[in-house]
């Protein structure tokens, strides 16, 4: 006998191929996914079901026990190290359910070339570059099986999950469900009311009422995808291109190019976001690009020296983070900063970059959380210095020599995506 909430029952009864659950905290999302997995595993011969949590650790620590309890006696075997479960089905064969972390898709391209009868995505709003990886890597795995996909999350600003929710509400082939934490009868309403009193209106509305709001503490509130993301860049009006780089190896190295037009408007394009690259590889990448000079992370003097020895023109960079943030915010407000739509990692960071939460009754300085910031740091290096100084090159002679060399090779360089 299934002990389903009314929202869970309504969701499971839908036969639509694609389903979206926009549900608040503790509303029963993970149990819902387990029931969806069980139904497919029991009813389809040799079914393959893959569940994705935000991280492998979340799949292991949160979903694994819930899936096993839901599957019950249908389980034939389990492998906890791989998070793999083999089940009986009504056809007398077996089905397989795998639990994975979203990072395996983003960082390793895992899942490509496989087949699935059902894909389950938990906490989509917190999965980096979800839409791009869903469309390129995982959606094709449903083609030959005519499989289904279920997407669930609590909102986290206006990111890819918000776009999925809009699609589901506007497409008759999709099913959309909205549930608040109050819709789960196992959550005491009095306890939720106490949480509501202690939280800000926006935080409670987003996390418990599943209402899309701007992320609390968001740094670039001035950024609006509708106004600041562009499909093309007016190259004929842009006289100079400069680049920014935030170094990394275990963390990704991030670089981008900024174009400035005759009216002082900046356009950002051609992002680079790669792990595991040594400095010589990064130097080669920068030399292959159109930027005339570069603004590097000032905390890495040895790497900067390697850049200089490789023939790259280096600009000075201020370490004043707050002033740099203010410059970028001001450019958005003035409608003088636009980002090319192909800069997917940068757009994700824009939507998720936030300040640390302040302690109660303390006026602490606003400090950014050190995550989702690699390309944003590179962007800040360029814009703050370019907007507030006239000539920051260490060597003017090197600068003009660099321009001459680039002029010789410009015609042989490939045109990068989106910049025609």
Q: Topology of this structure?
A:
Layout: H1 6-13, E1 18-23, H2 29-43, E2 48-53, H3 56-71, E3 75-79, E4 84-88, E5 94-101, H4 103-108, E6 118-122, H5 130-138, E7 148-153, H6 160-170, E8 174-179, H7 189-198, H8 201-207, H9 225-228, E9 229-230, E10 238-246, E11 253-261, E12 266-274, H10 279-287, E13 293-296, H11 301-309, H12 321-333, E14 337-340, H13 344-352, H14 374-388, H15 396-409
Parallel strand pairs: 1-7, 1-8, 2-5, 2-6, 6-7, 9-14, 10-13, 12-14
Antiparallel strand pairs: 3-4, 4-5, 10-11, 11-12
Helix pairs in contact: 2-3, 12-14
What report would you give on this structure?
The chain has 420 residues and is an alpha/beta fold. It has 2 domains: 6-207, Rossmann fold; 225-412, Nucleotidyltransferase, domain 5 (2-Layer Sandwich), CATH 3.30.420.280. It is built from 15 helices and 14 strands. The strands form 2 sheets. The chain has an 8-stranded mixed beta sheet, sandwiched between helices.
Number of helices: 15
Helix content: 25-40%
Largest sheet properties: 8 strands, mixed
Oligomer state of the chains in this structure: single chain
Which class best fits the helix and strand makeup? alpha/beta
How many strand segments?
Answer: 14
CATH class of the largest domain: Alpha Beta
Cα-to-Cα separation, first versus last residue:
61 Å
**Strand/helix succession:** HEHEHEEEHEHEHEHHHEEEEHEHHEHHH
